[in-house]
Amino acid sequence: MPEFNRSAWQAACSIYSVLNCNNLPVPSLPELAWESLETILRKIRKADQAGWEVAGSRLRTQFIQMLPLVRRQLSEAESEQDASLKPKLLSSVKEIYSDLCSLADEFDCPEIKLEDSEVTVTTMAICLEGVELGQFQIRLNWSQIKSAQPYEIESLDPNPAAGSDDVVHPHVQDQRLCEGDGHLAIQAALEQGRLLDFFVMVRQILETYNDSSPYVSLEKWYGANCQDCGDCVCRDESCRCDHCEVDLCHDCSRSCEDCCRTCCNSCSQSCDGCGKSCCTRCINHCCVCDQVFCKECLIDETCKDCLEEEETPEEEKEEYTQISECPKVISAAVHPVCLGETAVPERPGGE
Amino acid sequence: MRVLFINNNGAGFADYIELPEDMTVQELFEQKVPHGTPADYLIRVNRQPVAARQILLEGDRISITPTKIEGATIS
After folding, report:
1. Of A13, A124, A286, B8, whose CB neighbour count within 10 A is largest?
2. B71 in contact with A, Cβ within 8 Å
3. With a threshold of 0.80, does the pTM exceed it?
4. Which residue of chain A is at minimal alpha-carbon distance from B65?
5. CA–CA dist A339, B1 (Å, integer)
6. Under DSSP, is residue A281 helix (H, G, I), strand (E, B) or coil?
7. B16-32: pLDDT as tens digits
């Protein structure tokens, strides 16, 4: 028969009393929505008395639209009260005690601190995708067991991400674990006093890497690679392209001269008009020549050169047309500038 | 017979359930996690690891916890 563990029993009694403390929520009524209904009702009466038919009709529509909101809020209040009165599956003192005693089978050095209301366990050294993260201590404060996250994760051999001392694990920041897929199951285990399940689930999260949602990805744990030059840079010395979100070193990052956003080489272009360096959002193609220009060098999506070209040939064309259509004599008289270009008719019999 | 069944997968489930006599741990796992592989779970009976063929008894506490639970940046 296993030896009786007095501190585990005392802790189990204390945890049970915290869990068994029944803080029933005060029922709430849809007061705001109800007040709105009463206001609309007063307005309807006033509109009817004054004979404002259109206003009365609109107010009645508003009244009908408000009714489902009141109904929904009432049913929410009902289900909240129902859930709070339903008997919950709560571990007994004996079960909590058994959980505390079994921690030794799963973890190194489980520790109960009655004075601090804390149970602490230590994981094995954790290595994720070749990155040694070391051992972690999971510290549960049972006096806060009904709060959102009554536990902390502490690294015993911290190997924080480069430039982020508070990130000691891809899913831990400031000693808080982001539970992800385990959130609801952990919450249920804590609510029911299943402490062994709680500690095991937290350990399993620490031993799992979710590459789609880390604070710092493991591939960038020791720093980020600049996308443009390939150099490895510390995270706090790197910056990110605001467009394609690649990491950059400070030497390779550019700032758009129009919007001041940071951008990489691929997301930056020089204006063919003034030579200004702009990001892809601030630079556009001329709809005629297809060259790239900044906002200032484009007028109605056309660059200044193309605009001038469009205007100039028309004027010249008009001039040529006038010259060819006008009688030669008149042409010379009206356009003295073009006089030199006017053909002089030959005199009959002249030389 | 009545046992406490705990499934720490997803939203978590813990309740007493009725099982036929002489049911093994493996049979219960196949019934409750039909698409799962036992190797992907920590299966405990009365908080201890057990053999797949162990026969369940009245009042047993069976827990199933995934070995991989993905954390995230926002919980």
Report:
1. B8
2. yes
3. no
4. A201
5. 119
6. coil
7. 999 999 999 999 999 99
> What's CA A41's distance to the chain center, in Å?
42
Return the structure tokens found at A56: 């009365």
Torsions phi, psi for A319 (to 5 deg): -60, -45
Which residues from B are below 8 Å from A201, CB to CB? 8, 65, 69
* Closest to A178 in 3D by CA, of A212, A146, A144: A212
DSSP symbol at B9 = S
Q: Can you say how many angstroms the Cα of residue A99 is from the centroid of all Cα atoms in its chain? A: 39
Residues of A in contact with B48 (CB under 8 A): 102, 105
Q: Where are the alpha helices (DSSP H) in chain A?
A: 6-20, 31-50, 53-85, 93-106, 183-192, 195-206, 304-325, 328-334
Q: Which residues contact A52 (CB under 8 A, 6 or more apart)?
A: none
Chain B nearest C-alpha distance from A124 (Å)? 15
| Chain A residues within an 8 Å CB radius of B69 | 180-182, 185, 201, 204-205, 208
Measured at the CA of A49, the angle between CA A43 and CA A50, to 5 degrees, comes to 90
A201/B69 Cβ within 8 A: yes
Contact A194 B72 (CB under 8 A): no
